[in-house]
Structures are given as C-alpha cells and as structure tokens.
Amino acid sequence: MADLRLEHIYKVYPNGTKAVSDFTMDIKDKEFIVFVGPSGCGKSTTLRMIAGLEDISAGELYIGNRIVNDVEPKDRDIAMVFQNYALYPHMTVYENMAFGLELRHVPNDIIHEKVLWAAKILGLTEYLDRKPKAMSGGQRQRVSLGRAILRNPKVMLLDEPLSNLDAKLRAQMRSEIAKLHEDLKTTFIYVTHDQVEAMTLGTRVVVMKLGRIQQIDTPKNLYSYPINKFVAGFIGTPQMNFFEGTLKKVGDKINVSLAYSDSSVSVPQNDFIKVQPQYYDGKHQVYIGLRCEDIFVDPEVVKKSKSLVDVRISHFEELGNETLIYGDINMKGDGFAETSTRVIIKGSSTYDFKIGSVVKAAFDMKKCHLFDKNTEETIMPRLPKVNVIDCEIKDGKINFEGQSVALPKFINIKNAKGELYLNNDAIILGEGPCSGEVINFEIINDKKLVYILVGERVIFALADKEYKIGAKINFDLDYTQINVKNGDKEIIKSLPEYDNIDATFINFASLKNKSGKYDKSIENRKSFVKKNYDEQFKKLTDKYNKDLEEAKKTDIAALKANDSKKLAETKSENAAKIKELKTTYKTKKATADAIYKENSKKIKKDVIELYKGIKENEYAAYKKFKSINTDREAARKHHDEFKNFKENFPKERENEYIRRMNDETLRYETEINSLSGQFKRDKSSLTNDYKKMKKDFHRDENLPKCLEKEYKSNLANLKRELNVNLNKAAQLFFFKFNDFIIQSSDVISNKTIQGLGTKVFIKDYLLEVPHSAFIEDKDGFEVTIKDTLDYNSKKYLVCTFFDDGNEKTLYVLSKKDKKVGEKIKLSFDINQIHVTEKSLGLKIY
C-alpha cells in the first residue's frame, strides 16, 4: 500500500473563491482518516481532488513517492465509494462487482475468485445474482464497497457513504466499515458531517471550517484538547456549553466570573497552570467551555463540590438511558435560546426537579476549556508555545522571577518594565545563567515538554531528553526570540524568522544577454539525462538479443503441431462441457418454472380459502350481533362497519394475493437469475480460457516476430521519454528582483508551474529567506551594512537594499565582522527558501 501526502493544496475557482486553502497533511499507510466539518467546509472537495475528480489549483498531491496532480483518476490506484452507491441497475450484484475488473481485462477465473472473496467478506454471497432494486440500502452500499475493494487500491475514498441510511443501518455499517479496514489493511479516507462516525471510525480526524484545517488529531485528543472554540463546539453531543466571563487572580486561586449572571467560582491556580497570566487581570473577556457531562445536579455530587452555580430549570429531554436538563444561569433567561447563559446538563434522571425551579449545579472546573473571546483560540493549550513573564530591564540586564541575565550589548536599554514573551523553544536547557526546578514532564505528540518552576512562575520549555521531577536545571535564552512589551509599546523586538524579498518568476529565454553563463549548466543536465537513458537502452537491447537467441532454438514445426492438437482437444472438450451446462441449466429452469407455477396456484387457493373464512366469520358475527342487540345507535354503527367491510373486502383480498405473488416472483426471479448467471460465468470461463490458450500459442509460434515488435515498441517509448526529459533539462527557471537573477531548483520550479500553469509568469512571489541561507557572491545583489547584532553565540549583519525605490532590511547570519557602511554582494541557498504566490496567498514551497 502507500502513504499519502498533501502539500499546500488549494482549490480556487475562476471567480476567486477559495474552497480549500493550504491543506497540508501526511497520511500514513493503513491509517483511517476522517474529514469532518459542516456543509461547505471543503471536505468533499478535498476528497475529490485526491480522487482526481477536481483539478488542484495549487500544491502537490503524492501517493507513495509519486506526484499525481496530472494523473488520470483511473491511474491513481485509488477506489471511491459514493453517497448514492452508483450501481448499474440492469446488472446483478456479481456483474456490478466484476465490471471494473473486466474493463481492466483481468482473467475470468481471477475475477470469479476475487468476487467470491469480496462477497464473503461483505456477507453478499447469497445475493450475487440479485439486482440492486431487490436489495436494501445497506446491502447496496456493501455492493458499492465490494466493487471498490476488488481493485485492491492503495487508498480507499468514501464520500458520506452512510448518509442515505437510517440510524440502525448506519450503526451496523459503521461496524462493517471498521472491520473492512481492519481486514484490508489499506489507507481509508472518509468524509462525513456526522461526528459520531468521525469519532468511532477515525484513527485521526481532520476538522475543517471554511476550507481550512482547524485541527488534526486522534478522536480522544480532539474531545479533550480542542484548539479553538469551533472544534470544541463541533465535537461532542450535545455541544459544549459556552459561558462568557473573566478570570481574576486572588492569592493562589483564580476567580472565574460568569457574565450576565451573579455566579462565580473559585479554582486553584494549578488547575489553570497553562493559562498565560495576562488573562488573570479580570478584564480580558474569555469563553468558559464545559461539556454537559461535566456539570452535575446530582445532590450527592453537589454536596461535595466547591464550584456551585445557580441554574434555573427550563425543560427536560428524556432519552431513555439519560436525561438532558436544560436551564439558564441567568435567572431571567428562558433556557431555550442558544445564549452564553443557557446550560445543558446530562444526568441519569430529572431528580424530581420542577420546571422554573432554581437548583445548584456543580461545575467540574478541572474539565473546563478556556478560549479568548476575540480570537476564539484556546488560552490553555496542551502544548503552550509562549511564556509571558513580568520583567524589568536595568543596567543592561533583564530580571525576571529572581533571574538576572545580561542582554546583548547592542540592546541599549537602561531601565524599563514590561512583559517578557518567551517561546518554549527559546529556552535552551542544560547550561546558562538561569535556573529552576522541574515540577512536571509530559510527552505530547512526540514533543517533550518540561514544566520549570522559576521563582513563583512555571515556565514551559521543549526538551530533547526526559527530566526527572524535582531535578534542578540550568538554562539560557535564545536572545533572537526575546520580545519585551509594555502594553502596545515594543521595548525589545525579536529577530524575524525570515527576510522577505519580492520577486518574479522567469524562464531561460527571458534572460537575454545573461543566458550564456547557464549554457554549460544546460549541457551538463542534458548529459546526465542522456547517460541515464543510454544505460536503459543497453539493458533493453541486451535482453532482446538474449531472448531472441533462445527463441531461435525452438522447433517451430513441432510446436505448431503440438499446439494444434491441444487446441482441437480443448475445443472439443469445451463444446461438450457447454452442451452439458445448457442441459443442466434448462433442467433446473424447468424445475424452477414448475415450482413457480405450482406455488402461484397454491397462493391463489390459500388466499381464497383465507378470505372465505374471514368473510364467513364476519357475516356470522354481524348476524349474531343483530340477533342479540337492540340498541339502535350501536346497530347503526355496526351496520356501517359491516358495509365498509363488504366494500373493502375484494380489494384487501386482491392486495394480499398481490403481496404474496410479489414475494414468490422475487424468489423465482432470484433463482432464475442465479441459474442464468452461473451458466454465463461457466460458459464465459471456458471460452476465455480457450482464447487465452490460442493467444499464447500464437505468440510461442511467432516468438521472434513478437519479441521484435515488443522491442521496437519499448524502444520507441524509451526514446519518447528521453526526448521529454531532455526538453525538461533544457528548461531553466529563475527568480528575479531588481537586476539580480537566481536559478530556481527543479523542485521549486515544478511546484510553481504545477500550481499556477500558464499564469506562472505573470504572478508576483514572496520569497522568505532564512538568515542562515545568505552567502556572499560576487554575482549577487548589493546590500549596505548598517549594523551588527551580536547575540554572543551568533552575529547578524543588518543590511539594507533598495527594491523599486523602497529601502528594505534583511539580517545575515555571519561569522565575519564587517564595517558599517561597507557594501557586499549576496545570494542565497534556493533550497532553504519558502515561496508564496502573493495575489491569492498560495504557499508554493
């Protein structure tokens, strides 16, 4: 099977609408991936791009190590199961499942073996000769699955395959699809809007919104660690309760105030240890999320809880094994409207609560989720990225939580106060002027996270090894990643990760007078290609000559005589077998016809006798009623009922007869279809075997000519490939800004052309260049050195250059000292850059 890789995949329609934006994901072999999200979020479009049913606007799709953007759907080695089954109504189940294999000219005996194998896996063996109209929705979906798995694909794509089924069938089919994935051991990608399917089937789930990936994780982690409010609300039924509020630090407690109510709860600060302290000011607006199973009204739980909130009960939904209790923490709220004060509680009963009564609810705040109200991103991430610490800068040192660290000399700030923003990877563990104590250690998605108590603050750092709790640890800071702010004022600014350069994309022909220096490069590229193909030509010719020598040793006359004898024997045997098959078929069909005729007569007789008895009983009951009942009103009512019976009786008898005959006809047609299908398959198998034998004999008898024909065909194909690759080798592409030109790599060129097609040369591009990628080059672009930033362990040259009259700054990692004002020429390693098409924001590389 194969891995699947999507790199910066976009789908942009001609009107500029982005259906899918920057979809990047690695899918491992044998994974079960589920795309989930609301209607219109781009999940089916992404699936269709993988299938080849939609063109990819930008980005690259790999199946295994092969890029398949321009590969036809039939050649991608994938299979797709559609929502509407897409079965041929005039074909039997067997014929529907075998059809794809027949188109690919798979031998008949192998088709038969594969269809029976798939039918056994899917429980369809007894339905092979039925047509789709005689099957239930679940059975038809299994046929669709069977047809797909028979291709033995590298990837199985399923586009909402269960949406047409009822709840019971969906649950059954979920289990069958999970078992099928286990049996086939291939990669499944499944699209659904049903979160139950997503959570029960997926090894990993991709949550999408408005064409963008929101989160990719295991079902358990999506539920427990949503990265934003959308994911938190989308995953889980009923959806998570969201309350607006603020957080205020009081001693070692955090007071959580719930907006639009008089309620608040107090939480130990350790329960919110990953929340940044700036949210503890009582001013930042946040969403407090709690799932309905984490709020309790059970009197025993309430009695033990310290986080109690008043809830006014509005209504109940009793679901058998559980009850949903609806209410509002705002005493004037109605509990029906989806507001930030409505609350849904999952319980085992109504606890004899009355609608309108106010009860105490226990909030399990250890299970709560917190989101910034403006960004809706989590403020207590599972893997914190930034530490925010109060600090003071004094006499060239930065002081925080009892630590005092000398700043690089070029940071000329004497005295200031503010907040230190420190990325988790900006803390360099091992040695350094800072120290702390390890109080916790976690491994999260292969990343090692260390909790370090520094003074009274816990800071988070990424580690390359495990640390024991209680261990003392020293660390230094990566000064290039330090930010210090005081409100909106930036006191110290971190070094940008990349330098930005605006450029255009041009081809070799556009270089004009500058093209000569690349002629040798083109010749070298062509020479490399030709050498590779020369080896392939030699292997092909050597094999042909060897096979030809062996073929010439064959006694053709004796071979023809032997083949003719075998063909004649096989033809005679097949004729006898086909005759026997016809006889058997006719005999069994005649028996089936007789049984059908007999059963039809019996059905008619049974229905007549049944309804004769019903009629006699009804007449007798009416006669008896009339003889003993003197109530005129009752008599009139009973007379009307009897009259109605007489009017409807013939129709009911006819309907019963039709129903029984329909069942019998379906049984008869299924049996006849089975007999006919078996006869056709057996006859076809004999005929195909004979044709294959004849074809093989013809090749053996004319082997030198066949070998020559195959050799010439393979040689022509190889020559075509050579010419295509020689043309590619002669095509050089470049990025240009001002008068500077740098040759693009084949990888970047291919991605750029693949993503943008003919528009590639009229687009503007943003090149993001790492500081370490710059190199001095006499043919480079000129920059002026304005300053040197000495970070002790690293030095950066602050350089400026002009682009379209605008002065721009870039930072060059350098081991050499340079004078301010000195001019140097730079180039950069093209393989280290990132490339983005600017107008639509398409990430190319």
The counted number of beta strands is 40
Low-confidence stretches: none
Please compute the radius of gyration using only Cα atoms. 38 Å
- Structurally, the number of domains stands at 5
Per CATH, the class of the largest domain reads: Alpha Beta
**Terminal residue distance:** 27 Å
The percent range for helix content is 25-40%
**Helical region count?**
14
Corresponding CATH superfamily of the largest domain: P-loop containing nucleotide triphosphate hydrolases
Fold and architecture overview:
- With 845 residues, this protein is of the alpha+beta class.
- The protein has five domains: 217 residues, 3-Layer(aba) Sandwich (Rossmann fold), CATH 3.40.50.300; 142 residues, OB fold (Dihydrolipoamide Acetyltransferase, E2P) (Beta Barrel), CATH 2.40.50; 109 residues, OB fold (Dihydrolipoamide Acetyltransferase, E2P) (Beta Barrel); 133 residues, no CATH class; 148 residues.
- Helix content is 36%, strand content 31%.
- It contains 14 helices and 40 strands.
- The chain has a six-stranded mixed sheet, with helices on both faces. Strands 23-22-21-24-29-30 form a six-stranded antiparallel sheet, with no helix packed on it. A six-stranded antiparallel sheet has the order 33-32-31-34-39-40, with helices on one face.
- Helix 3 crosses helix 4 and helix 4 runs parallel beside helix 5.
- The mean pLDDT is 89.
Topology:
Elements: E1 4-12, E2 18-27, E3 32-36, H1 43-51, E4 58-63, E5 66-67, E6 78-81, H2 93-103, H3 108-122, H4 137-149, E7 155-159, H5 167-184, E8 187-192, H6 195-201, E9 204-209, E10 212-217, H7 219-224, H8 229-234, E11 241-250, E12 253-258, E13 264-268, E14 286-290, E15 295-296, H9 299-304, E16 308-318, E17 323-328, E18 342-347, E19 358-363, E20 369-372, E21 386-394, E22 397-400, E23 403-406, E24 415-423, E25 427-444, E26 447-454, E27 457-463, E28 472-477, E29 482-486, E30 489-492, E31 498-507, H10 519-552, H11 556-628, H12 632-701, H13 703-729, E32 733-737, E33 740-743, H14 746-756, E34 764-770, E35 774-790, E36 795-803, E37 806-813, E38 823-828, E39 834-837, E40 842-843
Parallel strand pairs: 3-8, 3-9, 6-7, 7-8
Antiparallel strand pairs: 1-2, 1-4, 4-5, 9-10, 11-12, 11-14, 12-13, 14-20, 15-19, 16-17, 16-19, 17-18, 21-22, 21-24, 22-23, 24-29, 25-26, 25-28, 26-27, 29-30, 31-32, 31-34, 32-33, 34-39, 35-36, 35-38, 36-37, 39-40
